């Protein structure tokens, strides 16, 4: 558990760097590091498939997409952020952490233990037999995503200029 | 024992949610705002999986997280395409340049 807490703290630190970094490329790389650590945490929690998906898809593919967008919008790099954001961040984070710890200790400790429902079978059986409706939803969302990207990047035809 | 672990995971997931919310509320760059949304998504998937661990139904939680990750990819693709189109229209990634859309 100690190692897990160290990993969680490292994930928070990487995400904080991603939020506060001025350079967008550094922020994207910090986001990739954060999801890499999250993948390791998933793996150690006994969820290897979620960990593999997190590392390969989120840390790999989404980072590539982010870098592509940053490269395509190079001149937009110089958006001026207000300076109080970085100065006020530690204060806000400290206040939030105190509230967080108090709530978790005070309220959530009284939440009755979740009833366990022991599972049988493998990950594939659960995904394909119990959650087969989710797969249809996934297909629909992927199709909608592809169609909307195509619509966003379609070539302008002559009617648009008239 | 399991209960304490669950609370630790929830604590850190709430931290991730706070970071993403702070980014969304304070930043002005569109790509930075989207990084904030991604961080919130990471916190949510951590909550899902840790609750599955506490409830001893890790396989169900895992399949939900995998579904979420697949949906996240198409969300990212569409949102980044929208950001590129906004950049072409405005020549800027500043969120304040979008205020001229208001009626």
Structural class of chain B: mainly alpha
Q: Helical amount among residues of chain A, as a percent range? A: over 70%
> For the CA atoms, what is the radius of gyration of chain A?
21 Å
Shape, principal axes of CA atoms of chain A: extended
Distance between the termini of chain A: 65 Å
Q: In angstroms, what separates the terminal alpha carbons of chain B?
A: 56 Å
pLDDT < 50 stretches of chain B: none
Elements of chain A, N to C (H/E):
HHHHHH
Mean pLDDT of chain A: 84
Uncertain regions spanning at least 5 consecutive residues of chain A:
none
The largest chain-to-chain contact, stated as pair and per-chain residue counts, equals: A-B, 83 and 70 residues
H/E element string of chain B? HHH
CATH topology of chain B: Helix Hairpins
What share of the residues of chain B does DSSP label as strand, in percent? under 5%
Structural class of chain A: mainly alpha
Fraction of residues in β-strands of chain A: under 5%
Count, helices of chain B:
3
**How much helix, percentage-wise, in residues of chain B?**
over 70%
* Assembly annotation: heterodimer
Give the tally of β-strands of chain B. 0
What does this structure look like?
- The complex is a heterodimer of chains A (162) and B (103).
- By secondary structure, chain A is mainly α.
- Chain A has 6 helices and no strands.
- In chain A, helix 1 runs antiparallel to helix 2 (24-44).
- The model of chain A has no long low-confidence stretch (mean pLDDT 84).
- With 103 residues, chain B is mostly helical.
- Chain B is built from 3 helices and no strands.
- The longest helix of chain B has 33 residues, at 58-90.
- Chain B starts with a helix and ends in a 13-residue tail after the last helix.
- The mean pLDDT of chain B is 87.
- At the A-B interface, helix 1, helix 2, helix 3, helix 4 and helix 5 of A face helix 1, helix 2 and helix 3 of B.
């Amino acid at each position: 558990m100690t190692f897990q807490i160290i990993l969680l703290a490292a994930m928070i630190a990487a995400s904080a760097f991603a939020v506060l970094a001025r350079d967008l490329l550094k922020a994207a790389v910090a986001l990739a590091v954060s999801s890499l650590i999250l993948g390791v945490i998933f793996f150690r929690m006994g969820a290897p498939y979620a960990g593999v998906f997190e590392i390969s898809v989120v840390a790999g593919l989404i980072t590539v997409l982010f870098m592509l967008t940053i490269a395509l919008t190079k001149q937009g790099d110089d958006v001026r952020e207000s300076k109080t954001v970085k100065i006020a961040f530690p204060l806000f984070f400290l206040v939030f952490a105190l509230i967080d710890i108090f709530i978790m200790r005070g309220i959530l400790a009284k939440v009755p233990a979740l009833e366990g429902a022991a599972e049988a079978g493998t990950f594939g059986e659960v995904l394909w037999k119990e959650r087969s409706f989710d797969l249809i939803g996934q297909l629909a969302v992927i199709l909608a995503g592809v169609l909307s990207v195509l619509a966003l990047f379609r070539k302008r035809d002559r009617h648009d200029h008239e | 024992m399991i209960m304490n672990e669950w609370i630790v995971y929830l604590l850190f997931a709430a931290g991730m949610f706070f970071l993403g919310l702070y980014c969304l509320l304070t930043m002005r760059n569109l790509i930075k705002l989207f990084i904030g949304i991604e961080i919130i998504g990471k916190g949510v998937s951590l909550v899902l999986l840790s609750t599955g661990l506490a409830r001893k139904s890790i396989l169900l939680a895992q399949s939900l997280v995998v579904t979420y990750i697949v949906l996240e990819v198409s969300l990212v693709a569409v949102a980044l395409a929208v950001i590129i189109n906004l950049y072409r229209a405005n020549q800027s990634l500043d969120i304040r340049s979008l205020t001229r859309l208001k009626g």
